[in-house]
Description:
The structure holds two protein chains of two kinds. Chain A is built from twelve helices and four strands; from the N terminus they run ββαβαβαααααααααα. Chain A has helices at residues 18-34, 52-67, 79-88, 104-138, 147-156, 160-182, 190-229, 232-238, 243-280, 286-296, 299-325, 331-361, and strands at residues 2-5, 9-16, 39-50, 71-75.
Amino acid sequence: xxxxxxxxxxxxxxxxxxxxxxxxxxxxxxxxxxxxxxxxxxxxxxxxxxxxxxxxxxxxxxxxxxxxxxxxxxxxxxxxxxxxxxxxxxxxxxxxxxxxxxxxxxxxxxxxxxxxxxxxxxxxxxxxxxxxxxxxxxxxxxxxxxxxxxxxxxxxxxxxxxxxxxxxxxxxxxxxxxxxxxxxxxxxxxxxxxxxxxxxxxxxxxxxxxxxxxxxxxxxxxxxxxxxxxxxxxxxxxxxxxxxxxxxxxxxxxxxxxxxxxxxxxxxxxxxxxxxxxxxxxxxxxxxxxxxxxxxxxxxxxxxxxxxxxxxxxxxxxxxxxxxxxxxxxxxxxxxxxxxxxxxxxxxxxxxxxxxxxxxxxxxxxxx
Amino acid sequence: xxxxxxxxxxxxxxxxxxxxxxxxxxxxxxxxxxxxxxxxxxxxxxxxxxxxxxxxxxxxxxxxxxxxxxxxxxxxxxxxxxxxxxxxxxxxxxxxxxxxxxxxxxxxxxxxxxxxxxxxxxxxxxxxxxxxxxxxxxxxxxxxxxxxxxxxxxxxxxxxxxxxxxxxxxxxxxxxxxxxxxxxxxxxxxxxxxxxxxxxxxxxxxxxxxxxxxxxxxxxxxxxxxxxxxxxxxxxxxxxxxxxxxxxxx
Lengths: 368, 250
């Protein structure tokens, strides 16, 4: 584009396209800003080609000129150029009204109302989940055949190797770290007590729950969220099926069964990991170590661990469902829902663990 | 008689498929400059597959594809990316990015591939949305739009850079007749005013009658005809006759 500039006129030549506009935009705006003539003429007679970027530039010049009190005239535009300007000019397009900004008080009110709606929604979700979980035990309707076994494999069996490995290593590390301290007091044998109690009461349930939150919770949230954004849940509803019952209940059943099983396994493998340290590093025999573990544990340790695992399982699956079913939009929202589900469920698991720890083991009458 | 240099898209002996199943069988076709070429045929005949080969989303088993006279099957990535700047694509389901607003979707190619200042980009976005009659939806998320509106917004994104070549996969599918007609008028305006060439996959007969300069008729992965619409009707090919006859009588 060659521009011939004089005081009150400008001549364009050649092509006024995307590249030319990018190149000359600043120069033209500066020229217009400096020019204070009442009338300015843009000679378009020698323009060969004009695209929508060129039209946008002409519109921008026109609007800017108008703001500074100058009248801009397009002169001698050939028919094809004139047609392009009328086809693409943005001057007649009405911009939508900007969204109203509410005052602070109203925004706080909206925010509080939103939280209330979320709370009501959660109550509905949890009650529906409870209701259908119980109903499903006696009626097989509304769920795909074989879905429970399928979910048991996906949620439980497939998680077994990672749960087993991490639990073994946790027991191993706990024993190694505590052995270094206890050995100084000739109390090496108490490594067995320490690991057995911590694995059954805390580490077993909580490590399994964290693995489940990261592995199964995220996949449940992503699956449900994707179903929502691709209207699969709407399709289920249109077929007279409840998405919670169809999609969530088999997962709740599966996780409620597999999580305690894997938690017990995690406890055993953690103790096994500590036994390796006991035998190889502390020279404690298999039998004395085993006897020490059996003597240290009481039934309550294992039962509370299992109860915790069921509570954690429900927290994980309901958090995933809550985020999944609330997802709107597209791929990025599915990602956000998944991340939020994992972070929230891990937080809730730790919070619930603290509360359950207080309920099961806090005794104000016992001397410290 | 048309000159070979007028061909903006040339496909020769293209054979391709998925997982060993042949979908396109020795397809040859051309699309000429400043024309609207419609690829048509029954569902599952390979129309979309052919279109995806033209933008190299799929690679052929054999044959050649030339866009703007350049062979794309063996073109290296940076060179092909340069070529893509001259091509706009409208996907069957719109394919807008759902996490950003409609105006941000349309601004993507302008921000990434031009040096235009932000004010001009905003104005261009408004122009494109005005063209597809969606200027009121500037700040809406794609999920807040209807299917037809999403498709129109997607068209606005496809023409953001005023590409000389536009590929559209079923632009009228799922649209009401009035919206479909106004979309067709827009495509004609783009051809006439900006000189855009288009390759459009469609089986909407009314739309084909309105916009097609030439057609490529596919049947079971084979190209039965490639040429002007009026010649197609008098070519005496049973499948094409049946397509037009059944389409006209519903």
